[in-house]
Design a protein that fits this description.
Oligomer: single chain
CATH class: Mainly Alpha
GO molecular function, one term: gap junction channel activity
Helix content: 55-70%
GO biological process, one term: cell-cell signaling
Largest sheet: 3 strands, antiparallel
Function: One gap junction consists of a cluster of closely packed pairs of transmembrane channels, the connexons, through which materials of low MW diffuse from one cell to a neighboring cell.
Protein name: Gap junction protein
Strand order of the largest sheet: 1-3-2
CATH topology: de novo design (two linked rop proteins)
Shape: elongated
Number of domains: 1
Order of helices and strands: HHEHHHHEEHH
CATH architecture: Up-down Bundle
Family: Belongs to the connexin family.
């Protein structure tokens, strides 16, 4: 698998990420992709060839290996890395869409005309796309952690397993190669995955907090609109102003009804 190609694509996402997103990207490549390529792949390189059972019955060893390892750890982690990195491309595609719209807008109205203050700034639809990518990555992380635990019943690999699947003549003992080393790598990859989940949740909460602060600044006329947390684009301001007008009209309507006395 060409991990350099994936790294090049994700590097473009880095400039649109928050601090939590940059840490997440570093954890993925340093603690997961690098460990996966340099060490983990070699440990599981010939896993089936070193899986031995105390029988000479043809096909028994292969059947037992397939029973206990329906999918190899290394292939499951490869799928996991692909699934958790793909949602980030939604952000890149959305920014590319904005830049194309900006280019067409300038071509039609002149170079000084601007459709967006900054096409890569997380406002409006891009904010929702970024948030959706975080939820998707978190969901995939938790799903693969569940699958790993469900398939193998535990994150710890046993030294010996017993198998009686056909065509084995009876209950046979099978031995896994490098069980301790594989267990260490499994716990390491699981820990890195949990850390990525925590970083994603922190980034989700951070984005919601920043957006809520902006909305609060716009709804409170006494606050300084030039404050860092009150910077918000015109599209979002229009939505908030409309919401505020509807709220004020509703409040005035309620007050009018309360102050109206019935005619005798």
């Amino acid at each position: 698998m060409d991990w350099k190609f994936l790294e090049g694509l994700l590097s473009g996402v880095n400039k649109y990420s928050t601090g939590f997103g940059r840490i997440w990207l570093s954890v993925v490549f340093v603690f997961r992709v690098l460990v996966f390529v340099v060490a983990a792949e070699r440990v599981w390189s010939d896993d089936q060839g070193h899986f031995e059972c105390n029988t000479r019955q043809p096909g028994c060893t292969n059947i037992c290996y397939d029973y206990f390892f329906p999918i190899s750890h290394i292939r499951l982690w490869a799928l996991q890395l692909i699934f958790i990195t793909c949602p980030s491309f939604m952000v890149v595609l959305h920014v590319a869409y904005r830049e194309e719209r900006e280019r067409k807008y300038k071509a039609k109205h002149g170079e000084d005309a601007r459709l967006y203050d900054n096409p890569g700034q997380k406002h409006g639809g891009l904010w929702w796309t970024y948030l959706l990518s975080l939820f998707t990555k978190t969901t995939f992380e938790m799903l693969f952690l569940y699958l790993l635990n469900y398939i193998y019943d535990s994150f710890k690999l046993p030294r010996k397993v017993q198998c009686d699947a056909s065509p084995c003549p009876n209950l046979v003992d099978c031995y896994i190669s490098r069980p301790t080393e594989k267990t260490v790598f499994t716990y390491f990859m699981v820990g890195a995955s949990v850390l990525c989940v925590v970083l994603n949740i922190c980034e989700i909460l951070y984005l919601i907090d920043v957006f809520a602060s902006k909305v609060f600044c716009c709804l409170r006329p006494g606050l300084n609109k030039n404050d860092h947390f009150c910077v918000i684009n015109s599209h979002e301001i229009n939505k908030i102003v409309i919401f505020r007008k509807k709220t004020l009209i509703s409040q005035m309507y309620v007050v009018t009804i309360k102050n109206t006395k019935p005619h005798l």
